[in-house]
Here is the input.
Amino acid sequence: MDTVKIGLIGFGIIGAGVVKIIEEGRSLLRRRLGADLDIVRIADLDIKTDRGVAIDPARLTTRADDVLDNPDIQIVVELIGGYEPARTFLLKALKSGKHVVTANKALLAKHGDEIFAEAEKKHLSIGFEGSVGGAIPIIRSMREAFVANRFCAIEGIVNGTANYILSRMTDGHGDFPSALKEAQVKGYAEADPTFDIEGIDSAHKIAILTRLAYGTPITLESISVEGISHITPEDIECAHEFGYRIKLLAISKYDGESIDVRVHPAMIPESHPMSNVNGVLNAIRVCDNWMQESILVGHGAGSLPTGSAVVGDIVEISRAILSGARNRVPQQSFQPGEIRTIPIKKIDEIQSEYFLRFNVLDQPGVLSTIAGILGRHGISIESVIQRGRDQYGKGVPLVMMTHLANEKNVRDALKEIDPLDVICEKSILIRVEN
Here is the structure.
């Protein structure tokens, strides 16, 4: 029976999951692939820590070059994360004629153009299903199952850490700091959670999906990114009163002329299926001209969910190797000559409905003053909630929902409102996605 030989760089949580799935699922994989998968070498700086999987110590090495320079290895799997040395390793593997698999969303978001170009030049394959949504087969769906569909929007809950924190706050289990601490204790958040809670991880993922959906290169700098650290239980409670829940969304919309791509907390209706995607689950909603919308839900991170996606890529590339197929599916969903730059819309240009929360002095005329400023900037108020004094007795929360408005107009209005003597603290803005 044929054997496809694999080299693994990175034997951490995901790497251990990949090894476990291949070793324990060997019989099933052989029946489905018609060949054996053999992990020839595993490189990691730490080869002494027990990963919980049985592996011959002779296969372990601390030198990545023992994988990259091995002439028998046909597929190199990179699971170390970060930009460097991951970029160098992937490019060396491709230049050596090896197919590659990665779950490194940050690397592809930042250096995707270079890596995809090298793969196309060498007629090699890149598998990166594990880079977005963990076990959710969103990349394969967009590149193959939805190949005839013209995408107009992608909306995703694509970070399990942020979703867990907001879910706990929604369920009444404390404020942001306490929910974050709980996530760290349970292993859902890193010691330094910045990439997750500030939306950077989600931005990496929506950059990849935008590239696949519309056939355009995109830089991280062109994505507007906002995190969830400023969200309070009061915001969540007010959202519920209006019939919404707050989620950290990665959004990409194409109107045929420009792309609106951003990451930020957003209110979505409680009746929407994604509003009930809680805990560490992920959900991705795609809209197109034929199906209108499809929603994929699943585990977005972790050893086995992401490991499952990585092994799926390994099997797909192995089938191509065994059959002699080359570039059956374009790496970026579009043929290389059809990748075109599409303008990215600035955040100031978008139209949205808005949730606005002010903390104001309890004085007559405050509501009319704020409403007047909003009105002068072309912002129409849909509804208002005035709540009791906050626990410190420093002001009264005043909450408004607006009709559709221009982002720049809203920002300009807030710049005029925030310095008023009746405003006790900086106002809060959360966009509404209906």
Summary: The chain has a mean pLDDT of 94.
